[in-house]
């Protein structure tokens, strides 16, 4: 079947499913493969549960005329998404970076949707499967699609750019994330910069943080760009006011008070404001969008529970974001500060050094109480209490409840430190 014919079928059945536990009536089931599963084996089940068509790449699973055989299901899904992206009029804004991608994506969507019909990546569906699914969710009336791109190896962003073919792009930052896959910080810079490489080589428009020397260097000679700066007034000036605890900024004489904690969220707000300015969203609408946005899904959430004021930032962590969170917590005007931090994953050979560095920083910042959780932190040299596993820490809390006060909880997704809330 040609791509054109497959796309015509998709327009008649515009729901994509890749999991037979989530089959929707009249969807198209794509039989993807993974290290521990083979979707081909579930094609018949998908049809029985209500799927209109099943796309497979193994002849023996071609069960009926509603089963479409292709060479490679994943490649077909990606090619179909690119075809659909070009079938529609929506402009694509792509973003990547080491930290803040999802928050920035949500802020951009909040701002741009004040004037345009938009869609944005759901959750963090930002990989070689998630990006195609986002593109395939673009309806005919959508004007802007904000597409988040994640990667833990070089060439991944380049591949996602070939699929999404973005018209605009922005990189949040270059930090110590996925060092194991990228092979170090230089690898991170090269890998994330693949978005700018694609945009500049195709004459597309670039948004930038002009206060980031790496971005300045990468885009020094490129003309189709717009940047924000808190320092250089030759760029769009956005002034940082405070983050105690919420980020407050000023632009064109108008003060914007966000519901985001931490100075590290200042540039995330700036990116959304910059794009709003470029796309002619009225400044009062930009202000309303930023001020009404509330973080969720364990990302910089503030809550009160049983006498504790909690900063829950347990969605993910790497050395860059961990350092920023700790320094921000130190600068906050808050009583009785307690820190609970969990292991940072995917650091490869640098894991021991990076965890020791965070432990040393935490000691310098003089918090009232500090607890380190996870195998990596268990191996550091520190005066703080260490726990090899979450279970060990949970057991400790049953005998020694935490002192009432202000609590920072941060760790990598695999640590799932939000479980602590059940034990407060």
Concise account of the structure shown:
The protein is an alpha/beta fold. The chain contains 15 helices and 22 strands. The longest helix is centred in the middle third of the chain and has 17 residues.
Task: Give short descriptive properties of this protein.
UDP-N-acetylmuramoyl-tripeptide-D-alanyl-D-alanine ligase activity, Udp-n-acetylmuramoylalanyl-d-glutamate--2,6- Diaminopimelate Ligase, Chain: A, domain 1, 15 helices, 424 residues, Protein-Tyrosine Phosphatase, Chain A, peptidoglycan synthesis, cell cycle, UDP-N-acetylmuramoyl-L-alanine:D-glutamate ligase, 3 domains, 6-stranded mixed sheet, single chain, alpha/beta, 22 strands
CATH topology of the largest domain: UDP-N-acetylmuramoyl-L-alanine:D-glutamate ligase
Q: Roughly how many Å apart are the termini?
A: 58 Å
Report strand order across the widest sheet.
Answer: 8-9-7-10-11-12-13
Spans where pLDDT lies below 50 across 5 or more residues: none
Count structural domains.
3
Enumerate how many helices there are, as a single number: 15
Name the CATH class of the largest domain: Alpha Beta
Residue-averaged pLDDT, rounded? 94
CATH architecture of the largest domain: 3-Layer(aba) Sandwich
Structural class: alpha/beta
How large a portion of the residues is in β-strands, by DSSP E? 15-25%
Q: What name goes with the CATH superfamily of the largest domain? A: Mur-like, catalytic domain
Number of beta strands: 22
- The residue fraction in helices comes out at 25-40%
What summary fits the major beta sheet? Answer: 7 strands, parallel
Radius of gyration over all CA atoms, rounded: 23 Å
Specify the overall morphology: globular
Binding site for ATP: 97-103
Protein name: UDP-N-acetylmuramoyl-tripeptide--D-alanyl-D-alanine ligase
EC number: 6.3.2.10
Domain Mur ligase central: 96-275
